[in-house]
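Progress note, sequence design subtask.
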């Protein structure tokens, strides 16, 4: 490509034709030749006369210039002019490989990177170069195809939530295989990583390499920790720089379950520092609601950190049968439990009746034998709701009759009377050691110290369910810890005391680890290889490169040690993992992660992403040449005197008259309305005269039509506004009629059309839009206006929608019909009082046609309404619950339209098996 004055030319040899323009100038000046002047006396008789048509004896110079410019524009246009030409890659003619880091570090500026890639694809297409892509975070052998083919797939390339690992770079080098020689454009995500230099050397052996890298700094956040009563947040950046303040948002769920920003904090990078820190002090209840922390202004997985049980300190209530005795703390039933839980849990002390209203996560009963009915009933209800009751044995339980004959509801197993003593002065044998934990136990993988022994315990009675409830046992097979599930919660019994009287277990670190495995406490320090040995963690929610959480689907579980040791990648993607009742977050960064800036050798040119795309301008030059030639024609006619001759004037006048006169077959407004309403199925709304209400009604039907198009086989056209006085109603299967107090009452002719419409199978959805302020009837201005409007209509008896009405199942199974408001009942035509439910059917036989009217006040159009961009026009509720309400409103609209179009066919018995299956009956 040749560049002249900032404009490139793809076929510059055509510009040689510009050298012929002086020759063309001379030819045009010489043809026709100038006339020879001779004096003739008779010419004097012609003086004062003027010809109708005149011809110049020589072409004017400015007309010649106009023609020269037209020819020059043609030559330049055919030479392929291009604005913003790329000269660096102009000489290449072989394959071109695009190498993308494709990591989370480039996610924030991913749109700019895509634009730069698209600009390079345009240049490669112009040069006819084949193109291949190699993404280092997901390396696959590059396939060289045309640039246009790759442009169509460019949107499908997304950043991964991890960085290229050495193994991935080895796979990338192997993927190059025998691809031959090619040039490389490397789009870097700014960060340095191991193995990049070796891959660069391999690419330079194949051809030239050019790097594209943004100058903006990459920032990320390390996992949040709970230290010194505050949440500690640490941020890092790739390069040192001036002092900078960064805002961090803590996101979570409010009491209604809606996602929102719970608090914000500012962290500061000092000048020349690559790390910053801040602390957030929050109440335990609010801290437990936090799900993630995000750096404001950064959209990447590295700029987000997920919270898990390590941040959430559980509330544990401790209750014992006796109070501490002064000076004998080591004999307190709760002493060792308090020492084990205090660093990682919020402890609550008090009577059972006092702690239950606080709704703790766990309640620990240390040697509490019996509970009164007033205590047992609410405790059982709390367990069924998801609480965990942990009980420890002791002399009181051993001496009581609790769970002897019949299993106590608050005990996991039946117990033998008296307990068991081994290794004492009055017993035979040595103290018993613990048996290795089995695979199904939550303690599986924990290392049992040799000094942990048991000298006394309460013994479980043999039962058919005993084996499945034992989660720890002694070396002789005697149960040590048993557990059973009650509702959403569980009951756990340690068959030894919580003190060192019966065993050395409370004196060992194993005691703390067992409580952590039971999710009694939560500690970030517990996420170690040793603590997670033998556990399997199931991915629940995974993070993509942009930091968005998505459902993990049915991915295989990850071994505990691998989850904390292995680098993030396809095998261990960042996200939330669960094992039993515990949740662990695997974030992109670890507590030790450092970020480094990628540096390039001097022989690799580095450019930014702000590359102006090439813009061919050949069309502009050719269009200019056409305009100049048209101007030449007009000027030539004018100079010859034929531009405004009588014949031309008449032709121009006739043409103008034809353009002004409308065609004889022009359609009337009524015909255009009819064509628009009948070309496809169309929904309509009644014009109320209130501009805002009518706009929302039209936007609501637009949203409902779009939803029908995407979810069903019904493909409506754009909805129409209906004037009851002038428009035909038979075109519309359903009319939405929003009621306003000031709208005019229709004329008698309009009511006649409305009654005909209702009798012929049409439906009107009356919406008073006041369910948030009024009950059904005349208690509101809209309700009174509805009564006035509906009085002349032929409306049958009405009733609230029964649970077996066909509207509840025409497409979706529904029992609620909210709009923007989730209000009162919706009324439809009353069913035949003699309709009976046939045995085996989940509904009555209501094959009686379509209800002509549906009346409610939930403002459905406002919930359906969409703006010009397709997004919701008006808010519905708050957060997730509001969007769920909007979804149910859409489903109600779909069911209405399906009911109008298909009648009551869903009442036929042929649908009974499918409906029973969906109803779960």
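Output:
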């Amino acid at each position: 490509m040749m560049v002249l004055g900032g404009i490139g030319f793809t076929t510059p040899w055509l510009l040689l034709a510009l050298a012929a323009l002086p020759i063309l100038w001379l030819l045009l000046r010489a043809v026709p030749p100038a006339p020879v002047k001779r004096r003739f006396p008779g010419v004097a008789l012609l003086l004062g006369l003027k010809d109708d048509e005149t011809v110049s004896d020589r072409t004017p110079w400015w007309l010649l210039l106009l023609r020269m410019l037209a020819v020059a524009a043609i030559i330049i246009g055919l030479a392929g002019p291009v604005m913003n030409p790329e000269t660096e890659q102009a000489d290449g003619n072989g394959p071109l490989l695009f190498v993308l880091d494709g990591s989370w570090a480039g996610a924030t500026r991913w749109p700019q990177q895509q634009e730069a890639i698209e600009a390079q694809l345009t240049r490669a297409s112009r040069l006819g170069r084949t193109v291949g892509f190699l993404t280092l975070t997901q390396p696959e052998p590059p396939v060289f195809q045309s640039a246009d083919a790759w442009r169509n797939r460019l949107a499908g390339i997304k950043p991964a939530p991890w960085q290229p690992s050495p193994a991935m770079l080895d796979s990338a080098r192997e993927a190059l295989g025998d691809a031959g020689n090619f040039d490389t454009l490397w789009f870097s995500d700014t960060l340095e990583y191991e193995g990049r230099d070796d891959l660069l050397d391999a690419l330079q052996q194949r051809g030239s390499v050019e790097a594209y890298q943004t100058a903006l700094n990459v920032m990320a956040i390390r996992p949040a920790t709970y230290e010194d009563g505050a949440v500690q947040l640490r941020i890092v950046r790739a390069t040192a720089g001036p002092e900078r303040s960064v805002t961090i948002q803590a996101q979570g769920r409010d009491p209604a379950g809606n996602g929102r920003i719970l608090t914000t904090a500012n962290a500061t990078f000092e000048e020349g520092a690559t790390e910053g820190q801040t602390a957030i002090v929050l109440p335990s209840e609010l801290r437990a609601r936090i799900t993630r922390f995000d750096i404001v202004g950064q959209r990447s997985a590295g700029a987000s950190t997920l919270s898990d049980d390590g941040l959430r300190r559980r509330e544990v209530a401790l209750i014992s049968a006796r109070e501490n005795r002064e000076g004998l703390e080591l004999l307190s039933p709760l002493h060792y439990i308090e020492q084990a839980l205090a660093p990682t849990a919020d402890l609550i002390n008090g009577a059972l009746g006092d702690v239950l209203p606080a709704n703790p996560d766990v309640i620990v009963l240390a040697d509490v034998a019996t509970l009164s009915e007033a205590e047992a009933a609410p405790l059982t209800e709390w367990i069924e709701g998801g609480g965990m009751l942990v009980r420890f044995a002791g002399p009181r339980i051993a001496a009581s009759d609790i769970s002897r004959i019949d299993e106590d509801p608050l005990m996991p197993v039946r117990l033998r009377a008296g307990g068991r003593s081994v290794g004492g002065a009055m017993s035979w044998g040595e103290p018993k050691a613990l048996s290795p934990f089995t695979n199904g136990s939550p303690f599986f993988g924990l290392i049992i110290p040799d000094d942990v022994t048991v000298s006394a315990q309460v013994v479980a009675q043999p039962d058919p369910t005993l084996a499945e409830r034992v989660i720890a046992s002694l070396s002789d097979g005697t149960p040590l810890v048993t557990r059973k599930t009650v509702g959403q919660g569980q009951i756990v019994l340690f068959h030894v005391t919580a003190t060192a009287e019966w065993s050395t277990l409370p004196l060992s670190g194993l005691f703390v680890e067992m409580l952590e495995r039971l999710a009694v406490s939560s500690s970030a320090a517990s996420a170690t290889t040793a603590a997670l040995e033998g556990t399997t963690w199931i991915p629940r929610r995974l993070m993509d490169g942009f930091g968005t959480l998505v459902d993990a689907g049915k991915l295989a579980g990850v071994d505990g040690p691998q989850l904390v040791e292995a680098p993030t990648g396809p095998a261990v993607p960042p996200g939330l993992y669960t094992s039993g009742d515990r949740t662990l977050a695997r974030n992109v960064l670890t507590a030790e992660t450092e970020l480094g800036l990628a540096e390039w050798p001097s022989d690799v040119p580095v450019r930014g992403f702000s590359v102006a795309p090439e813009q061919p301008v050949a069309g502009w030059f050719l269009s200019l040449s056409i305009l100049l030639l048209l101007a030449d024609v007009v000027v030539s006619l004018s100079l010859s005197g034929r531009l405004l001759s009588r014949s031309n004037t008449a032709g121009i006048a006739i043409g103008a008259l034809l353009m002004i006169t409308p065609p004889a077959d022009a359609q009337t407004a009524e015909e255009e309305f009819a064509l628009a309403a009948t070309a496809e199925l169309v929904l309509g709304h009644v014009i109320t005269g209130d501009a805002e209400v009518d706009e929302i009604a039209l936007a609501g039907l637009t949203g409902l039509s779009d939803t029908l198009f995407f979810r069903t086989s019904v493909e409506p056209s754009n909805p129409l506004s209906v004037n009851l006085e002038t428009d035909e109603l038979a075109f519309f299967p359903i009319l939405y009629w929003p009621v306003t107090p000031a709208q005019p009452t229709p004329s008698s002719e309009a009511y006649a059309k409305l009654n005909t419409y209702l009798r012929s199978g049409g439906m009107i959805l009356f919406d008073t839009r006041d369910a948030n302020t009024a009950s059904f009837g005349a208690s509101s201005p809209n309700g009174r206006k509805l009564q006035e409007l509906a009085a002349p209509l032929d409306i049958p008896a009405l009733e609230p929608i029964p649970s077996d009405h066909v509207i509840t199942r025409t497409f979706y199974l529904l029992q609620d019909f909210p709009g923007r408001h989730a209000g009162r009942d919706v009324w439809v035509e009353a069913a035949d009082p003699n309709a009976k439910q046939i045995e085996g059917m989940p509904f009555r036989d209501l094959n009686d046609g379509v209800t002509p009217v549906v009346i409610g006040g939930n403002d459905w159009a406002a919930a359906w309404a969409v703006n010009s961009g397709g997004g919701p026009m008006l808010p519905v509720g708050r957060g997730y619950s509001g969007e769920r309400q909007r979804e149910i409103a859409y489903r109600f609209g779909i069911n209405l339209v399906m009911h109008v179009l298909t009648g009551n066919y869903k009442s036929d018995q042929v649908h009974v098996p499918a409906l029973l299956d969906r109803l779960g009956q």
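Residues 323-330, 424-428 have pLDDT under 50 and may be disordered. Work on this subtask will continue into the next period as scheduled.
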